[in-house]
Design brief:
With 194 residues, this protein is mainly beta. 0% of the residues lie in helices and 54% in strands. A hairpin with a 7-residue loop joins β3 and β4.
């Protein structure tokens, strides 16, 4: 449940309920046509799958601004097809389908702390540390003649995820990975996290 607001009162960063889905407002600007009232042009992305949408809202349009709740939590375990988290304030178990937040869920480790964002008691996002350090287990050999600046190769990291890495990365190296996208960020000098 949330507040009902006028379409022209939508602001960047708001989360609204639109056509039975939650959307994050990325950009807004007011347009004043020659005739009629002004309207709010919005650029937004659906939280469930990041699909982008542009929608015009008039001042007479009403939208529901979603009430989101953030809960500090700790990852406990995998239970069948669910990830189980324990909220740090009430010590309640929260179950989230493992596949819903892939590849991020592949980076969860026991006792990791994070923020769960919920809407009507449903988890809609999991916020981990922005960077995770992982060990490279396997890496394709570099192809002779490739330039290091523009070439990537496939590598397997310790949690079984395949990542595209620069050609200079070898098995045994540690790399920093974005857990939301499973993308290489940079080489790590040593293992920094537990």
């Amino acid at each position: 449940m949330g507040n009902i607001i006028r379409g022209v009162d939508i602001r960047v960063g708001d989360v609204i309920l639109y056509k039975n889905a939650l959307y994050l407002i990325k950009n807004t600007y007011v347009t004043q046509p020659g005739k009629g009232g002004s309207f709010m042009q919005t650029e937004m992305s659906r939280l469930s799958d990041n699909v982008k949408l542009e929608v015009k809202f008039r001042s007479s349009d009403k939208v529901e601004k979603a009430y989101l709740e953030e809960k500090a939590a700790q990852f406990s375990r995998i239970d069948g097809s669910d990830c189980v988290f324990i909220t740090l304030d009430e010590y309640e178990e929260v179950y989230v389908n493992y596949d819903q937040f892939l590849p991020l869920t592949k980076f969860l480790k026991e006792n990791d702390q994070m923020i769960l964002t919920t809407y009507k008691e449903q988890v809609i996002s999991i916020e981990l540390k922005s960077d995770i350090v992982m060990k490279v287990i396997e890496a394709d050999p570099a192809i002779k003649g490739q330039t290091a600046a523009s070439s990537f190769k496939s590598a397997m990291i310790e949690n079984g995820v395949s990542v595209q890495v620069p050609t200079y990365i070898e098995p045994g190296n540690y790399i920093v990975v974005d857990p939301k996208t499973a993308e290489f960020i940079r080489r790590a000098d040593k293992k920094l996290n537990n």
